[in-house]
User: Which sequence fits this backbone?
């Protein structure tokens, strides 16, 4: 990954202003006393199927979402939008756009605010970007080309965020995928003292309640380079949780502002950690 990108992130930690996260009031308008509500239905309008307004690579941090082959389908469904579409596209593009606004607001990273990218898991273009977000990996059914490309991505220094998946069945699928990609590595539960939870914001608790499917107990798990728990995190899994959902609806008042803010803190920490490792 670009050394310039990593160096750029190093200046951020020292200059964090740690706003108590009214987190750019323009982006989050949920009333303080709000309670978790049912997720709204799909939007009335949808982007053109299979068409993404990706921004060209320019060396700055760009939010990248991975499109992958799934048990269901790769393409958009007619209801694509809020709550619609295949798993890899859940919360797109609202979560991605909102997160970039917050990252730009609270850090000096200087992320690309012109747009976000969707890149196929099999596309070598992915290797130009140090961090990638994977939604609903529990339904990922990788092709051999995807496995080869993602393995190269991780070994080159890439960092993956796995989000929005739950249940033993989905976890077993994720474990099986990464046993093929990195056969000598295994996931470990992460504790609050991990560097990633202190990379920018001081995370005070890992008990971030899931916005939906609250019957599941959230857990953060990590896969480390060289299978060394003291080594670089290559993958972080937000298991039994969905921080992307918090990002998506943070400007609509569906979830409490405090929980949306915490979800943003986790995301910002992930990016700062990955850019400095």
Assistant:
């Amino acid at each position: 990954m670009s050394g310039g990108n990593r160096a750029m992130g190093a200046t951020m930690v020292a200059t964090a202003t740690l706003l108590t996260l009214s987190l750019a009031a323009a982006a989050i308008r949920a009333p303080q006393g709000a309670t978790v509500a049912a997720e709204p239905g799909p939007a009335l309008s949808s982007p053109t199927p299979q068409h993404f307004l990706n921004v060209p690579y320019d060396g700055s941090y760009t939010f990248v979402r991975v499109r992958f082959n799934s048990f269901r389908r790769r393409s958009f469904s007619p209801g694509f939008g809020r709550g619609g579409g295949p798993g890899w596209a859940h919360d797109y593009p609202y979560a991605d756009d909102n997160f970039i606004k917050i990252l730009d607001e609270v850090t000096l990273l200087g992320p690309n605010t012109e747009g976000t990218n969707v890149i196929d898991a099999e596309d070598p273009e992915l290797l130009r970007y140090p961090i990638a977000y994977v939604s609903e990996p529990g339904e990922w059914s990788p092709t051999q080309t995807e496995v080869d490309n993602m393995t190269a991505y991780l070994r080159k220094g890439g960092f993956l965020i796995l989000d929005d998946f739950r249940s033993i069945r989905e976890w077993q699928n994720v474990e099986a995928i990464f046993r093929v990609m990195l056969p000598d590595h295994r996931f470990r539960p992460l504790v609050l003292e991990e560097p990633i939870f202190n990379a920018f914001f001081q995370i005070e608790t890992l008990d971030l309640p899931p916005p939906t499917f609250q019957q599941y107990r959230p857990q953060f798990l990590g896969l480390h380079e060289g299978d060394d728990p003291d080594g670089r995190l290559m993958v972080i899994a937000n298991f039994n949780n969905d921080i992307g959902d918090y990002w998506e609806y943070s400007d609509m008042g569906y979830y409490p502002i405090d929980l949306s803010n915490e979800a943003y803190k986790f995301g910002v920490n992930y990016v700062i950690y990955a850019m400095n490792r």
